[in-house]
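Checklist before submission:
- one chain only
- standard amino acids only
- sequence pasted in full

Submission:
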Amino acid sequence: MSSTLPKHKAVKLYERARTLLAREEFSEAEKILRDLAAHDSLGRPEVPAALGDVHLGRGEYDAAASAYREGLSRFPGNRDLTARVGLVLIRQDRFEEAVALMGQLELKGLGPDLLMQYGYALARLERYAAAERIFARAVAGGAGPEARMLLARVRAKLGRYEEAANMCRSLVEGDAPAEVQSEAKGLLADCLLMEGQAAPALGLWKELRAAGELQPEQLGHMAYAAQLAGEPGLCDQLITERLGSVPTAEDRLLFAQIANLRNRPEDALEHLTAAEAATGEHYKGFIFELEATRGRALRLLGRRQEAREALARASEHPEAQGKLGPQLQVDLGHLSAEEGDFESAERSFQAALAMDPDEPEAQRGLELTRRREAWRTQLQANVEAQVEAAKAESDALRRRFVARENELEALRRELETLRAAQAQAEEKARRAEEEARSAQAVARAEQARRTREELEQRETEIDAKARENVERGLGKALATCPPPLLQAMMVAERTFQKALYTDLPAAAVAVLFAGALERALYTLFVERFRQWLEARGQLKDFLQAATREKRGRKVEYFDNFAAAFDPERPGRPPSMGEVARVLQRREEPYLHLFLAFLIERYPLPGRLLDVLADFVIQAKERLRDPVAHGRAVEMGYEELKVLRERLLFTLEPGQPGALALLLGV
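Returned file contents:
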């Protein structure tokens, strides 16, 4: 080995080499450093470290790693050289090896730049919690805005959107470089979107787009924010722009979620298929979101079993509950309710509200589920009571039969005596009949005349009373009542008044009131809604929104209410139950035009519409369904009076009857 240079000269040469290295004059720096290494002048690891930096600056990663490792052979365990080897591995995208190597180092004393590289490797391996600790240490050690930007990104990945948003605001409002401010503004928009603030997020992306700083991978996020913020036109424009390039799996997921929001589940499934087929892209980190979105699309299509399987796969992921929020439980609740499992549905909706007490879909679902469960419990109790009564009656009949068997013999013994007495009575009756026949004929004629006059008087009184009650019940709405509906109501009320003086069954009268209610629903909702759609030219829009599935010319709608409006499929009008169900589901996306019609033509509080729907369902299940299926209807006059009172006079305390309420709007 050559003789060692004097130390002061070696130090000056090393400083000269570092200056040249900073100027990226790598060749001159390399000559000086190799000369120092050959003379072993300093005897410190800085020389092999700087020599490796020369190769690193040129992009010669293998040569740089060799220089660092050669230095480690002379200075075993040197932390700076070890960290530099890890830096080379990171530059070569060998993140597992880099993390394994740098994880052996004591972090105290490592420079911010090396800490940032270590944190970057951890983040690429999706070890976000560990990456956050490293980036936080780098920021505390004086790292610049770039490190704070990386720390904000990692916190957003961990779902801590508020902290990430605050860091982004400080970068945007501070003295960070322009490119860092632009990146921070984009991440801030992402955080606001994840926190449910779509409008502010869209505003930030519009600023970036106007400044020409919007990145292609942000188009999908901006499109989703535009849909939530009520700008579907901008949303379509952004989707088209992104599809014209190379959309990622995450973009396809966002487009599928937008399709579900628009009640177009078929389009959502197509985007999800494209997301899974995206080449060269890692989407396992949000596979649970794909499954949750697929579950919602399948539920909207009515494919409940497939939807439940997809939602189950999503819920098994450890990050699902934290990142999906209440939506997963809302979908599970709807599925359980549609399958009649109201207990499970209630648990799912309560779980969703535990995550977000203000989630409107979960609130509505829980209310409807509890109402249906109460109705089912009441119905079950009525059935059990009827079964017990039937058993008791059967036992009583059995005991009575035994007693009658004992009496039969005594009756037989009395038979001969009765026959003799009957013969005598018949003879006496024959003679009395002959004597009274002439007098009775006159009396009967007189009685018939009086009876006929009384019946005519009673018919007149009944007609007057019926008209008085109908006019009193409808009030001012009488003038707007369609003649067929008024006639049906008059027939029902006249029959009710007659029944008060006759043995007419209450069920027969109730059926007439139910018929008047059905005609009112058809006249006031179905016909008027059809006229409203045709006047606005939106019949086709309504049918498209209500289409569940379309194969060629075959169309399947969400319910028979929507199918009744299809001019190419003339059929029976919607039943009472179908009208009641759309009143209850008026908030569903495919009924948005029906909801607009209700708001315009029937501006009633939502509670009154729900009360009206419940009343219609009770009339349908109590009267219309048994009659339609040929079953006998057992009803007392007290129940009949309640039905008549709610229909004609008072739907609920403080409100007019159902007919007057609708006609008076």
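Reviewer check: The beta strands are 547-551, 554-557.
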